[in-house]
Specification:
The complex is a heterodimer of chains A (368) and B (392). Chain A is α+β, with helices and mostly antiparallel strands. Chain A has a domain of 143 residues: Butyryl-CoA Dehydrogenase, subunit A, domain 3, CATH 1.20.140. Chain A has eleven helices and ten strands. Chain B contains eleven helices and seven strands. In chain B, the strands form two sheets. In chain B, strands 2-3-7-6 form a four-stranded antiparallel sheet, with no helix packed on it. Chain B has a three-stranded mixed sheet with strand order 1-4-5. The relative contact order of chain B is 0.10. The chains are: A alpha+beta (368), B alpha+beta (392). Chain A: GO terms for molecular function: oxidoreductase activity. Chain A: Its cofactor is FAD. Chain A: Pfam families: Acyl-CoA_dh_1, Acyl-CoA_dh_N.
């Protein structure tokens, strides 16, 4: 096990970072967030074509790059650092992982289309679904005679998807997005809005006869989300540090005041721990060894760190931090939404109660 | 010579084949192990090592498990601080003279840095060393010296030039603790025992051959020691769920009647924080394996201090009535910190020192802010003022 980054991973990071710096600086992200859909289809195509991001986790024989969770995590760090509005997490990680585990002919066919980036998918479950209660987020979609009926709320990435992967009546189905109604709702996270997806007798093809791939994909996604949270937190710390070095009050850079320095040192330490936890989760998901604990630890820690970093970034920017013009609010909104996504830190701590054998009190009472 | 895992394994086995620990004195075994380069494999050949990557030490430890070991508790300062400093700044003669008995435990080391008037602001220290021919005459008072009463040697920082700003007038020495004029007095602490000492130095004469590094370069030499101290304090490898969290979790498992929802939530949070800190330590050691300790070590110490304090505090609270008792307030000397052998009350009190010893948590935050994040320092009134003119 190594928690460091390999040379290949660093090269991948540099390629993604260069592309994002070139194509989508923060001001452009902000402008997009105010348009009808924040998703940048051209950028997504470039990420898919030039870097192979769309098919990163897909095997070579299906046209993918055959990489592991470790490489996907590095991409997510960079996308988090730039709050990039592309459907990497929702399509290339969550939906892709369901299809990989399903392994059926229909799933493999769809994976081939996803690998090129020409087709994009989304997992039609609430983004707030925890891996420990995977049934909770699929709403009441039912399958009957090859068609789906029902409604799912809070779906991330549906507005960018051509195909929806839908749990219904204990199985998994693929539905063309055109056959469903996707209504984007006003979302806390303006760079990854959620949608309500409604099926009214939509034609569907079964890709798995059971829901096992769903639970695995939610755990996989939760573990990798930690790397996105790490990227968000790192941007916030770097930006804050740069600002407090420049900003003068009382004839000194405000970053020379101990009260602020100590807060940033504490935040730095939280991020050091978050990086180790996120790398550990990615490594465990890549090797399949003790992944459940690694994911729960990373999610129990990194969600709150990203929120803390974004909150400190707002506070230490003073009035500027409260303006719509400064991009920090995009990070705060992403961090807060990410904290809820794929299980809250509390959900993951609860899971650790059994994973780490720290049982709770008996249900009725504490000590007399 | 490049040394890999297989070569080390082979070397360790060959060493064992030629040195049966059953048939020799433990000290002779340890000396032979040092001479075979199997003491600390990352040290150079001839000085107890093989110039191998640091992380390969575990290969040797595994092969030599069950053989005579050094009494690690007494040797913390020597192994963790004196040795790396001697290795970098010592002359060949000093390395040859000091490292072997340091490692085997024949000679215990202590640290004469802090003074009553120089704690966080170590560079302001007032112990004087005045040159007299080939010797230095040392006068002053040091404090918080663990193990001074059984130490043969000490690492000492003293002021050799009061007429320059404080950082520039310091020199680093090895102090002979058996020299006339060295007086050690126990210092009782909040746990009841005396783990530390005050050390009074009165006209102590040290030969110039005991100087480590250049005259006036003591601050730079001391930085090496302190970085290694923080790695030594904060960087101990543990398994997942081991260490203090393991102790608290075991009590938790054994006492279902003590469990409440509040304690459960706090314990789970601390379990997570322990685990991410452990992982950060693993990552730091992986980085160390390819370089030297950087300021990141300060972060580990900060994290461990916080965790130890929070966990030991929870442990006392969790025990309720039992938490109202204490095992022993007797004033006595203790040779090492017996964290796990004592009661929870002792651990709670002793852990309070974790955020003070080896750099307070406040100073560590300054170090992180300034050296890692590059934030500007507070305006300084003592920067370009000769030490002798500073207010105190």
């Amino acid at each position: 096990m190594t928690l460091l980054y390999s040379e290949v991973e660093e090269e991948l990071r540099a390629a993604v970072r260069d592309l994002l710096a070139d194509r989508l600086p923060p001001a452009a992200v902000l402008a997009r967030a105010e348009s009808v859909s924040p998703y940048d289809a051209d950028l997504w195509k470039a990420l898919a074509r030039d870097i192979g991001a769309a098919g990163l986790l897909i095997p070579e024989e299906l046209g993918g790059a055959d990489a592991t969770a470790r490489e996907a995590a590095v991409v997510l760090e960079e996308l988090g650092r730039a709050v990039t509005p592309v459907p990497f997490l929702t399509s290339a990680v969550l939906a892709t992982r369901v299809l990989l585990d399903a392994g059926t002919g229909a799933a493999r066919e769809l994976l081939t289309a996803l690998a090129s980036g020409e087709t994009t998918a989304a997992l039609a479950v609430s983004f707030a679904t925890s891996p420990y209660a995977p049934g909770g987020g699929s709403g009441g979609v039912t399958a009957e005679g090859g068609t789906l009926t029902g409604r799912v709320t809070s779906v991330a990435g549906a507005d960018a998807a051509d195909v929806l992967v839908v749990p219904a009546s204990g199985a998994l189905y693929a539905v063309d997005a055109a056959a469903a109604t996707v209504e984007t709702v006003v979302s806390l996270d303006v760079t990854r809005p959620i949608s309500t997806v409604t099926f009214a007798g939509a034609e569907a093809r079964q890709i798995s006869a059971d829901l096992a791939p769903l639970r695995a994909a939610l755990e996989f996604g939760a573990g990798l989300l930690a790397s996105e949270q790490l990227g968000v937190a790192e941007w916030c710390l770097t930006t804050t540090v740069a600002y407090v070095k420049e900003r003068h009050q009382f004839a000194r850079p405000v970053g020379s005041f101990q009260a602020l320095k100590h807060r940033m040192a504490d935040l730095w330490l939280e991020i050091v721990q978050a990086r180790a936890a996120a790398r550990n989760a990615a490594d465990a998901l890549a090797s399949g060894v003790e992944a459940a604990t690694a994911v729960a630890v990373a999610q129990a820690w990194c969600g709150a760190v990203a929120v803390h970093a974004a909150e400190e970034c707002v506070q230490l920017h003073g009035g500027i931090g409260m303006t719509w013009e400064h991009p920090v609010h995009l990070y705060l909104k992403r961090a807060k939404a990410d904290e809820i996504a794929l299980g809250t830190p509390g959900d993951h701590r609860d899971a650790l109660a059994s994973l780490a054998d720290i049982p709770g009190p008996p249900p009725t009472a504490g000590p007399a | 010579m490049t040394v890999d895992e297989a070569a080390l394994q082979e070397r360790a086995r060959a060493f064992l084949a030629g040195n049966d620990p059953e048939g020799m004195e433990p000290l002779d075994f340890l000396r032979a192990r040092f001479d075979a380069g199997l003491a600390w494999v990352h040290f150079p050949v001839g000085l107890g090592g093989l110039g191998a990557p640091r992380e390969l030490q575990s290969v040797v430890e595994k092969e030599l498990a069950g053989t005579p070991q050094t009494e690690i508790g007494k040797l913390t300062i020597g192994l963790g601080m004196a040795a790396p400093t001697i290795l970098i700044f010592g002359t060949d003669e000093q390395k040859q003279r000091f490292l072997r008995p340091l490692w085997t435990g024949e000679e215990v080391w202590c640290q004469l840095f802090s003074e009553p008037g120089a704690g966080s602001d170590l560079a302001t220290l007032a112990t004087r060393a005045v040159r007299d021919g080939d010797e230095w005459v040392v006068d002053g008072q040091k404090v918080w010296t663990s193990g001074a009463h059984h130490s043969r040697w000490a690492i000492l920082v003293a002021r050799t030039d009061p007429d320059v700003p404080k950082h520039r007038g310091l020199t680093y020495f090895v102090c002979d603790m058996t020299a006339p004029g060295v007086e050690v007095r126990p210092l009782r602490q909040i746990t009841g025992e005396a783990e530390f000492n005050e050390v009074f130095l009165t006209g102590v004469r040290l030969p110039d051959a005991l100087r480590l590094g250049e005259v006036g370069d003591g601050w730079r030499v001391a930085q090496t020691t302190l970085m290694n101290e923080r790695v030594a304090i904060g960087g101990a490898p543990v398994r997942r769920g081991g260490g203090v969290i393991g102790l608290v979790a075991d009590t938790w498992r054994q006492r279902p009647e003590a469990r409440t929802h509040d304690l459960h939530q706090r314990l789970l949070r601390l379990w997570v924080e322990t685990e991410v800190t452990r992982l950060a330590g693993v990552r730091l050691r992986q980085q160390l394996a390819v370089g030297a300790p950087g300021p990141e070590g300060s972060g580990m110490k900060l994290a461990f201090a916080r965790l130890n304090q929070a966990l030991t505090s929870l442990d006392v609270e969790m025990r309720r009535e039992e938490g109202l008792t204490y095992d022993d307030w007797t004033f006595r000397r203790s040779d090492s910190v017996d964290f796990f052998g004592r009661d929870p009350g002792y651990r709670y009190l002793r852990a309070k020192g974790n955020s003070i010893e080896g750099g307070t948590s406040e100073i560590l935050r300054n170090i992180i802010a300034e050296r890692v994040l590059g934030l500007p320092s507070e305006p300084r009134v003592d920067k370009n003022v000769p030490w002798k003119d500073l207010p105190r």
